[in-house]
Amino acid sequence: MRKIARLLAGLAISCASAAASALPSGAEMQNSYSSALEEAWSHMDAGRHPQALGKVDDALEMAVGAKSIRLIAAAHQIKGIIYMDLGDIEKQLEHQREALLGYTLLRSDPDIAEMAVTIAFYEEKRDLSYAEKIYKIGLESAERAGKQDIVAISHYRLGRIAFKRGLYDLAIESYEKAIAEFPKGADPFDLADYHWSLGGALARTGREEEALEPLIKAREIFLGLGEVSLAADVEEMMALAQRAVELRESLNDP
Q: What kind of architecture, by CATH, is found in domain 1-106?
């Protein structure tokens, strides 16, 4: 988690610094804002979270003074990442919601998509209905922004919510969309997971024969990635599906 948080923070700070450089508020403010965020990243990287939060607060104060919704939203986004690194989910979501609000006011679809998929992931563990709503907001923004990776993962996670609710046909539809939208060059581990989930949902609806194809694809991808244990788990599901197919055929024999 810490590695992910550091990567997210680095990307967010780079984007925020670029946004600051485009402001007509003067080079001094731009440099001070960017410097505060760079120092925040250094503190976070070294595990000095209180100092990191202090520097982001400095940047946030500058952003408020400049009346820049984008820079305010970016500062809240970065604070959310720092709290994620600390494991404080409540504080993380508090600041990420502020960021989402800012990006929504700006109608910045790429940023809305990024924030929504992150917030919904954590909300999914607490409130499925709210998470579903946020995923749909992110999905619409991702489609408008051409963020195919977020389109795919949003469909997948909406499918996961449908599956938890026992809405297996809806889950199947969402998983199929996730696979269809999966972008070239993205993490194949995710694609294997999508196929595995699709196979499981098909099997749950009594369509075991159809389930075998996505399960075979999932196993192949996992094996190619060296994920032998996960491939073995998929094989167990395949064996159960195959036995169900054979049993059904034997019962149908005259």
A: Alpha Horseshoe (1.25)
